[in-house]
Task: inverse folding
């Protein structure tokens, strides 16, 4: 009886081993009988990506890259690895996608797809960009990456899209700088306000609140004059300092009238110049047309959309200009 039981156990073990031996291995090269096995692998990877099987797609693409290093599909395969991470989404996957796209640019800098890789790197940070009063790390990275695309690939068909996204990013960065400058102004910390606002109007001339920033800058200079008048000081030096601050205030108000003549603060700027007994400049027709085109291109957010945006991480970029050339370098 015991011999029969032993025989049955042994037979079962042999059958189990045979089953394990005959089990198919999930090998990307299996059943690749084409004269173009690299193309078969690439097509399989694309099909896997189409069905959101990103791990399978990456394994297949990596097999292609390692097995056929001279394949005409190598460049497309390396780009597709980045695309698989990009499509998968999520913070970790997007970070990996950026690494893959950077590698692609390093190995294939002269291919048309290099500009596409650079655009996707910028778009990663654009998607992660937060509101002006939050962490601005991704906004700054997006600005840097869009600028890099425009400067490195000036003939790419993707440049117009990059420029528009760059204007949207700079709108967010401009709003951040304005809010900080306004914070200092309201607390009469005029030197800090001046530093922020003066930098803002130089770096982001297409910012939708440029006239408000310039007006607040002028008010900050006038605030410094008020403080100077109340302090005991050498009269000659005091007079020189007052004249310097007044001149800078007038310059800020004048710039509203010459660069942003159709915006809300134009009339207020004119009144301040008259009160300071300074010349009131007149904008050229070209400046009026330019500023009008910028203002007409901006969108306003409806009340419902504005409420919904309040619960979202991503900033509202509707007020960004749709015309003009965004600055590509900091002044």
Result:
């Amino acid at each position: 009886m015991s011999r029969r039981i032993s025989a049955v156990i042994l037979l079962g073990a042999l059958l189990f081993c045979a089953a394990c031996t005959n089990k198919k291995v999930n090998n990307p090269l299996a059943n690749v009988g084409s004269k173009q096995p690299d193309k078969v692998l690439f097509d399989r990877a694309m099909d896997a990506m189409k069905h959101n099987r990103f791990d399978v797609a990456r394994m297949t693409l990596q097999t292609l890259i390692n097995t056929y290093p001279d394949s005409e599909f190598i460049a497309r395969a390396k780009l597709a690895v980045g695309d698989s991470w990009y499509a998968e989404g999520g913070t970790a996957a997007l970070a990996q996608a950026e690494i893959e796209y950077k590698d692609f640019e390093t190995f294939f800098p002269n291919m048309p797809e290099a500009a596409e890789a650079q655009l996707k790197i910028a778009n990663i940070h654009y998607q992660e960009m937060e509101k002006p009063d939050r962490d601005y790390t991704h906004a700054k990275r997006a600005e840097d990456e869009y600028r890099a695309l425009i400067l490195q690939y000036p003939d790419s068909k993707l440049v117009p899209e990059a420029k528009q996204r760059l204007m949207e990013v700079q709108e967010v960065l401009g709003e951040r700088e304005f809010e900080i400058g306004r914070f200092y102004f309201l607390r009469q910390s005029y030197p800090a306000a001046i530093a922020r606002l003066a930098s803002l109007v130089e770096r982001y001339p297409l910012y939708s609140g440029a006239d408000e920033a310039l007006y607040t800058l002028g008010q900050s200079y006038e605030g410094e004059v008020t403080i100077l008048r109340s302090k005991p000081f050498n009269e000659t030096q005091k007079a020189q300092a007052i004249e310097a601050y007044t001149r800078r205030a007038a310059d800020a108000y004048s710039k509203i009238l010459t660069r942003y003549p159709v915006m809300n603060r134009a009339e207020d700027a004119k009144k301040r110049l008259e009160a300071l007994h300074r010349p009131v400049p007149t904008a050229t027709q070209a400046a009026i047309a330019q500023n009008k085109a910028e203002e007409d291109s901006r969108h306003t957010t409806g009340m419902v959309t504005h409420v919904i945006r309040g619960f979202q991480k991503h900033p509202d970029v509707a007020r960004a200009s749709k015309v003009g050339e965004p600055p590509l370098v900091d002044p």
User: Anything to note?
Assistant: Residues 1-11, 13-33 have pLDDT under 50 and may be disordered. Residues 38 and 67 are 8 Å apart (CA to CA). The chain is about 70% helix and 0% strand.
